[in-house]
Amino acid sequence: MGEAMTQIAAIILAAGKGTRMKSDLHKVLHPIAGRPMLMHLLGSFAELKPAKQIVVAGDRREQLEAALAGSDVQTVVQDPQLGTAHAALMAKQALAGFDGLVLICFGDCPFLCAATVRRLCDALSGDAKVAVLGFRPEDTAAYGRIIADADGSVTKMIEHKDATEAEREVNLCNSGVIVAHSDNMWRLLEAVGNENAAGEYYLPDVTTHAIKEGARVVVVETDADEVAGVNSRAELAEMEAKWQKRRRKTAMDDGATLIAPETVWFAADTSIGRDVLIEPNVFFGPGVTVADKVNIRANCHIEGAIIGEDCEVGPFARLRPGTVLKEKAKIGNFVEVKKSRLGKGAKANHLSYIGDADVGAGANIGAGTITCNYDGYFKYQTVIGEGAFIGSNSALIAPVKIGRDAIVAAGSAVSRDVADGELRMVRAEQLVKPGWADRFHDAMRKKKEGK
Questions:
Q1: Quick one: which of 228, 225, 285, 253 has its CA closest to 33?
Q2: Which end of the chain, N or C, is more open, meaning fewer C-beta atoms within 10 Å of its C-beta?
Q3: Is residue 435 included in any domain, yes or no?
Q4: pLDDT at 294
Q5: Which of 227, 258, 273 is the last residue before a domain boundary?
Q6: What is the domain-level CATH number for residue 300?
Q7: 0.90 exceeded by the pTM?
Q8: At residue 182, what are phi and psi to the nearest 5 degrees?
Q9: Which of the residues are catalytic?
Q10: What pLDDT is recorded for position 6?
Q11: In terms of DSSP bridges, do strands 407-408 and 423-424 run parallel, antiparallel, or are they unpaired?
């Protein structure tokens, strides 16, 4: 943006009821790739370093206020809800004294990007007073049309229902995103009337009024996917699918191998290194970082985990938040790890639960081992030293420490610390009764036969 456009304020409209979502959750807080739609939008705007960001709330505003708590984004309320132009005007007081460009957009259009906003702002560098964002969808039936000259000057904006047959042939549609300088925006918003069937104040009338004044209005075009809105669960799923498709391509372009890309699901903040192999049916929740040369085998669920270089995970593994795997650690099939650190080369190859634990380098945790970390009220830690060997089907009852190079015999329930280099075997004495099983089976067969 030019020097005259260094100051920008964003007004994000999110006052609608979102009834088509059929949800108790505010529409703009529904997640795509694990991140609420509104946060996608605000994340993009962060590149612009806006002077102010105002979210206009209405229905379920307390949810928006909670989601934005601690941020520099301000919430204002539209009550009653009298249309989109009226909603934008609710931000006027919050922007009192602001001198710069005002952007108005919608909270349920999560993928509007900073680069497009910059182009929209740059379009005002000449004699234009208002810039609108247009797009060309495959199906134009639901959208208002933008009639513009070859140089992008808008001569008319009209809703589909009011358009002539010739105007309906135009496929340049209105996204609803608009930018004007604060000197013009508030004046134009206040001039919008409500002479329509619904008695509401509509945002597109800002441009209509500007054109009537003789002001130049310009249109900037973008891709239809960037300004697609979400009004239903089906549209939410469509947006998720489009986002995932782009993210999978990015992962592969950056050097990861996805054997069946369409079956891998990323979160918005997933970080994937080079030469990573991801097998089919892998789901990444928020907060995952994967270093180089990691193999993630099929059917894994990973969330809030840091996976070091040369690690192997799965198949059928679950890594929960707080998991840290150091270089060359291995988590095998049907192993669940939660809030635990596995040191370099440590292994839990199958059928184990490791929770609230610190596992030293080179330790080996046998099949069926669990860390008993919860007593019904509090969580406790298990520490397993470097090179320790935990035999199969062992229960480590926290808080407990297993020393360096110690061995816990299979089937042990360990409730006291094990010293370095020690063998700990916790088993009941075996009782042997020769021939008892044969006599039992013989008696049961006779009983069944009625003898």
A1: 285
A2: C
A3: no
A4: 98
A5: 227
A6: 2.160.10.10
A7: no
A8: -55, -35
A9: 350
A10: 61
A11: parallel
